[in-house]
Amino acid sequence: MSASTQWAPPSVPADGWNNNQIAVGARTVFLWALGVLVGSWVFAIGLASSQSLGVFVSWLGSATATGLAIWAIVLGSIGVGRAAKLGGYRRGTALTGLLGGLGVLLIAPVVVLLGSLLLLG
């Protein structure tokens, strides 16, 4: 086999992150954000007998989910950059964290407002 046809592994970034664990972290944080958002809404609806506590739980869950979503977006964008350096390795995982974080960030205010209206209405 000639030297030009031999397979060469993708280049490893200088910091040694050759397995793109940041992409996995982005996806994990996104799933936590989604779980916190949905869980707080369900828990708030379960507290329908105590409306003010239900609204507080809904708002607290939304704030926590927003923070986690921002963290997922940051990790996802770093993971996409690393995937480009690694020949696309775990690019889909990083995009899941990035786009999922954006989705949670956009939907969190809607969920908290709907939860508040259902509890107070």
List the helices and strands and how they pair.
Elements lengths: L20 H26 L4 H35 L5 H30 L1
Offer a few descriptive terms.
mainly alpha, 121 residues
Notes on the protein architecture:
There is one protein chain. With 121 residues, this protein is mainly α. The protein has one domain. It is 75% helix and 0% strand. The chain is built from 3 helices and no strands. α1 packs antiparallel against α2, α1 (21-46) runs parallel beside α3 (91-120) and α2 (51-85) runs antiparallel to α3 (91-120). It is rod-shaped and about 70 Å long. The protein starts with 20 loop residues before the first helix and ends with a helix. Keywords: Membrane, Transmembrane, Transmembrane helix. It comes from Cryobacterium lactosi. The chain crosses the membrane at residues 29-50, 56-81, 93-120. This is DUF4190 domain-containing protein.
Q: What's the N-to-C terminus distance?
A: 74 Å
The number of helices is: 3
Number of spatially distinct domains:
1
Strand content of the residues, in percent?
Answer: under 5%
List unreliable stretches of 5+ residues.
Answer: none
Give the SSE string. HHH
Mean pLDDT: 86
Our Rg estimate from Cα atoms comes to: 20 Å
Shape assignment: rod-shaped
Q: What structural category characterises the helix and strand content?
A: mainly alpha
- Largest β-sheet summary: none
Annotation, overall tally of beta strands: 0
Give the proportion of residues in helices. Answer: over 70%
